[in-house]
Amino acid sequence: MKAIFLVALLLTSGYAQKAAEEVRKEPHHDLHHDHQKGDEVRKEPLPEAEAEKAGGPGHHLKMHRAKDDPNYHGEHGSMIIPVPEYEKYGCSKCHKLHTKGIKSKTGDQDKKEPIAKQSCKQVRVKVCIENRTNGSGNQPMSPPLIHAASRSLGFYNKGVLASDSETRGFCDLAEDGVNSEAAEWLRRNVGDLEPATVDCGVLAAEDGIAPGDTACFELRLSCECAFINNAGVNVPKEDVYVNVAQMQIITNDNFWAAGDILITRENGNDFLYEEADASEPPFQAAFTSLDAGCEINNELCTHIPRSQCLALDACSAAQDAETCNALRAEENGEIDDGQCITGEGAGNKLSPEIYGCPGEVASMTIEVLEGAADGPNGPPAGP
């Protein structure tokens, strides 16, 4: 009996070992790869912590990355979508990967993709500027800076310190006619101002305005501040204040500015100065020169922007041509009234009779246009 029992035990052990070897030869299947055979989902994937321990499908999916697998499932690894979810994305008998534009292991393209967020129809604000220094001042104007915010900023008020203007990039505008630094500062910082402020749009124009000429520019308001609804009506979401600044080029640091012009109605549900509203003409006003307080008014050719310095007969001497706009005489003052060239500076080359501007230097109109904007912010809108 003992001998028979031992023989049976040995035979059973041999069969068990053979069966185990056959199982090991079978290809490995997990929940992630079952969709290759069209299998139904059997259960939810393991939570990540348990999958890490078990080495199951959650772990497997986590390890897929673009650098490791050209058919990866998204930059951060995807999840198998549970039954109620994957059916609505167009796959009734396989696992679908909810990743835009990525093919699953079956080679199928996702039949439905997440809908991209739609951009709003932007409200257009037309700003037209006339350079009024023709014959009195003869001041070419720099490319203007036009921006809008959800509250009054007071950046161009008399008494604002030059140090503040310097921080905001406005001294570059007032001294050199360069608007890009101020535009960049506005884009980066307006949203962080206190009290809470929304940046409604910034335009750093590319073209200046010659004496006697008029140019128009188009500012597109950001969707956070306004939009055009399905009925084609301009709808403000915030109060919108428009600001404009522009340098008189043949000066040390004179400019004109229109600060904090409110273009929404008091009740906050409509725009003032709309093109379609005959009862409200466009905003219109004239402006005199301001001194930024950034640079001492020595009225030297060497301290005005180079393009104009080289063009002026009064500054055409060789020694001036070599040093045009090479120097700055920092003043660290504050914004005050300006007269362009007064004849009181140390230069005595630039004539106040030609380049002085004691009166109006610019006029401006603002009008809110109908219809959505096409293309990027900023091309001239036409007179």
Automatic annotation (TrEMBL):
- Coiled-coil region: none
The source's superkingdom equals Eukaryota
Q: Where is the composition biased (Basic and acidic residues)?
A: 21-53
| InterPro entries assigned to the protein according to its UniProt record, in alphabetical order | Spondin_N
Alphabetically ordered keywords of this record: Signal
Task: Write out the ranges of the annotated region (Disordered).
Answer: 21-61
N-terminal signal peptide: 1-16
Its protein name is Cytochrome c domain-containing protein
